[in-house]
Amino acid sequence: MLPWRFENMKIAVIGAGLAGRQHIQVIQNNKMCELDFIVDPSNESIEFCKNNGFSHFSNVTEALMTQIPDGAIIATPNSIHVENALDFIDRGIPILVEKPLSSDSESALSLVQCAKKKNVHLLTGHHRRHNKIIREAKDTIDSGQLGRLVTSHSMCWLFKPNDYFNSWRKSISGGPVLINLTHDIDLMRYLIGEIESVHSFESNANRKGKVEDSAVVSLRFKNGTIGTLSISDTIVAPWSWEHTSGENPIYPNQKESCYWIGGTHGSLELPKLKSWKSLNERSWWEPIQSNQSPTDNNINQPLSAQLNNFISVVQGKEEPVCSGEDGLKTLLVIEAIKLSAKIGKAVKPKNPELKCF
Ligand SMILES: NC(=O)c1ccc[n+]([C@@H]2O[C@H](COP(=O)([O-])OP(=O)(O)OC[C@H]3O[C@@H](n4cnc5c(N)ncnc54)[C@H](O)[C@@H]3O)[C@@H](O)[C@H]2O)c1
Q1: Which residues contact 344 (CB under 8 A, 6 or more apart)?
Q2: Ligand 1: distance of its center to the CA of 356 in Å?
Q3: CA–CA gap between residue 105 and residue 330 (Å, rounded)
Q4: Which of 27, 34, 97, 266 is spaced 20 to 30 A from 204 at the CA atom?
Q5: CB distance 15 to ligand 1 below 6 Å
Q6: Hey, whose CA ends up nearest to atom 33 of ligand 1?
Q7: Phi, psi for 196 (deg, rounded to 5)
Q8: 11-21: per-residue pLDDT in tens?
């Protein structure tokens, strides 16, 4: 029997846009929780709540004067994550904050520190960590089947239509490095290890906006592995996690891979979960064979698994799969990537352990 207040954990969703509405759907499909209320000042959201019979508020302060949820998911624009999150943390309410944790590491650090000081659970919504494919890939890597990891390559090439940028995404926090690459970086940290240094190049030659439309990054991991990432929101191509994983139905699915991880005894391509190893002796003159694990339809599975983890963390049964500290560390790598592109030199991500933990 669960403690009474968690039999049906009441969860508020702050920001009912693209991401927030997916969280709302996943909450509604989960028997362990229920939607408490939605906060979003937009007319579309007022209409959306009215049509669906959801309790609605236009700002967090007003909402928390009326209703106290058991937890909240923050899915507002990046630059106001921290301001919204602190309102909940101040009242001891656990939160899951969409990625990136904030649009800058200074405010993200203050959020992590505040949650730690007040002993409130803070999770980051890097939901790909919860994908079954990634869990299996992590098991394969951790089991040593690939041998010593040597190198990795990640692709995120996709094309965003012009009207995508008619919003806050036009601003400095709306480029693909902060919006998309943050997921890929988080996964590489999760699968391979902490990143020691990065060297990157950015371009806005196609969109000519304030932010990059494309970037390439070289990585050195602390365990000696080296890697590369390539990202663009202005290329028509199938090679991105968005298009290949099948986890989000809004992206037409392509049966391709977008991550390649290589070791001394084998290699792995994802999301196909196809592993390669030598049949006999390891040699470029000897045949190699592949093995592909079956993968099923993954639609919204990672978001559901992430929500289950949030509920279990609040119940004291599990540790966060992606904590606030994880969100901060990923953001510090992203900032190092931005700085490297600006100064044209390799940059080491700041170590958050220096001051705060
Ligand atoms: N995990 C993922 O794969 C994923 C996917 C998409 C977006 N995101 C993240 O989710 C967040 C939201 O992105 P989106 O694409 O849904 O943006 P969006 O613009 O579609 O939605 C943001 C919503 O927040 C609302 N909002 C603005 N100010 C608010 C406030 N003060 N209080 C409450 N609501 C407010 C807006 O009215 C809007 O409805 C971003 O941090 C983004 O990076 C994550």
Answers
A1: none
A2: 28
A3: 9
A4: 97
A5: yes
A6: 40
A7: -90, -45
A8: 999 999 999 99
Q: State the number of CA atoms in the 13 A half-sphere of 327 facing the CB.
A: 33
As a whole number of angstroms, the distance between CA 131 and CA 191 comes to 12
CA triplet 140, 190, 133: central angle to 5 degrees? Answer: 50
Please tell me whether residue 131 adopts helix, strand or coil conformation. Answer: coil
Which parts of the chain register pLDDT below 50? 1-4, 354, 356-357
The pLDDT of residue 357 is 40
Angle at the Cα of 239 from the Cα atoms of 231 and 73, rounded to 5 degrees: 70
List of domains in the chain: 4-128+302-323 (3.40.50.720), 131-298+333-343 (3.30.360.10)
Look at residue 356 in the predicted model and tell me its pLDDT: 40
Ligand 1 centroid distance, CA of 255 (Å): 29
Q: Residue 208 and residue 221: Cα distance in Å, rounded?
A: 32
Q: Could you tell me which residues come within 8 angstroms of residue 113 by beta carbon, excluding any fewer than 6 positions away?
A: 356
> What's the token pair of residue 287?
């045949």
Closest CA to 103 of 341, 306, 334, 322: 334
Is 167 close to ligand 1, i.e. is its CB under 6 Å away? yes
Residues 206, 211, 213, 215, CA torsion sign: positive
In this structure, the residue with its CA closest to atom 11 of ligand 1 is 75
* Nearest in space to 339 (alpha carbons), one of 165, 215, 155: 215
Q: Give the pair of three-digit tokens for residue 314.
A: 């609040």
Query: Looking at residue 250, what is its pLDDT?
Result: 87
The Cα–Cα gap between 189 and 352 comes to: 15
Query: Can you tell me the distance from the alpha carbon of 34 to that of 3, in angstroms, rounded to the nearest whole number?
Result: 16
269-286 pLDDT, tens digit each: 999 999 999 999 999 999
Sign of CA dihedral 141, 145, 151, 157: negative
- By CB atoms closer than 10 A (0-12, 13-18, 19+), residue 5 is exposed
Q: What is the pLDDT of residue 5?
A: 56
Q: Is 302 helix (H, G, I), strand (E, B) or coil?
A: helix
pLDDT at site 295: 74
The residue ranges of DSSP E strands in 210-334, in sequence order, are 214-221, 226-232, 259-263, 266-270, 274-278, 288-292
Q: Which residues pair with 268 in a beta bridge?
A: 261, 275
